Amino acid sequence: MIIVKNGQTIGAGDVQISVFGDLNMEVTKLSYGVKQSHKSNYSLGSVNPTSYSVGKKEYSCTLGLRFSSITSLEKAAGGSLLDIKPFNIIATYVNEENEIVTDRMLVKFADQGREITTDSEDVTREFEMFCLGIEFNK
How many beta carbons lie within 10 A of that of residue 9, not counting itself? Predict the structure, then answer.
């Protein structure tokens, strides 16, 4: 499993992922981040920015799951992942300073489908999640 947090990759052995409060969900990938637009402001008589403004925050989250976890979720949801209300994904890991870091994402499934290939021994799928917010290091 791979975790990518704002571009930094974290080793699979150092992380625990909880989806719906379940640590046994077969997560194969978790990638999440936030970006915020910035705009330079100019004053009369200046060719250089004199201040800046910030825009809205945009959150992103991708969740990779094994087929057995996908079908378990579909069964619990009555077939449609899209009907599942927003839920938390919690990622806990030890950073390079040996400190415990916990990140929490509030997400909802934004798509559903299958991805099966002939050269794959392990059936997995990555879901682009609708992300309502991320709390880093809480």
Answer: 10
